[in-house]
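[retry 2/3] Zinc ABC transporter substrate-binding protein: previous attempt timed out, resubmitting with same input.
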Amino acid sequence: MSLDRMRLGGSLAAAVTFSVVLAGCGSAPAPSGAPAAAPAADGAAVRVVASTNVYGSIVSAIGGDRVAVTSIIDSPDADPHEYESTPADAAAVNEAQLVVVNGGGYDGFATKLVDAAAAKPTVIDVVELSGLEPAPAAAPEPAEAGTDEHGHEHGEFNEHVWYSLPTVEKLADRLAADLAATDPAGAATYTGNATSFKGQVDGLIAKLDAIKTAHGGDKVAITEPVPLYTVQDAGLENLTPEEFSEAVEEGNDPPVAVLNETLQLFTAKTVKALLANAQTESPSTTQVEQAATAAGIPVVPVTETLPAGVDDYIAWQTGQIDQLSSALGTPAS
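[retry 2/3] Zinc ABC transporter substrate-binding protein: success.
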């Protein structure tokens, strides 16, 4: 039986404040024959559109007051998998000089907006930039067995690449280069901001390394694949049945046997923490969180987009990583 994927915003998002692929281009110029977006005029802010506020916050960190950023998804209630763009979104992309998309099938609405724009902006596809997945040769085929309704396969690639800290550092460098190409007068500012930002990301990597040193091999569970790069980089082992986390991500009920297998992780106290997507709730995730709480296993809330009241990527990730460290028994450094 299918269920609607429910996004939780408002008070819950505030409570965790700190707690279509672009073919062939990671940073794509305008196609031959297409009008390119105009370069920044002297003193004018570079117009940038990001598919989500996660990427918007990173653009702001690199661009500072030399950029004007529009994040299409800027609410914890919106689901990038299911988002339907608006005329205002189309207008923003049509006027943008740079667009940042996640790619990998996560935010196909953004790719469609770029394809429909009259003036083609430079595009950064972060999945392609990451090097974590070979760039596909063509757009995804219609959904078939083994794929979700968005036409991309699960179990092969985790598209939530903004949780990959090395990828975020690559993005900082690419943003500095592409912003400088549009606004040469700001090149030194962009490079300096990228260097400073990457230093902060290095601090996050150090926190994960510390968890790995103290707790490498510890077992955890998740409700969705969202934080798996964090789990991997912290040296932790995810024991959640893949069929459970994929079903939740796709808005489906996992089979009863799979749900029971997942619940057993908590009743048997096989895992030390549960990383739960605080922006999505279903009967299955509620049961899992209740089982963890009843067993005295800490629940670490994570989110796909910035929670309400948070506009800084580093602060957001610091809060989540520190909560994970504390849940495993090591106070945050």
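[retry 2/3] Zinc ABC transporter substrate-binding protein: The mean pLDDT is 85.
[retry 2/3] clearing retry counter.
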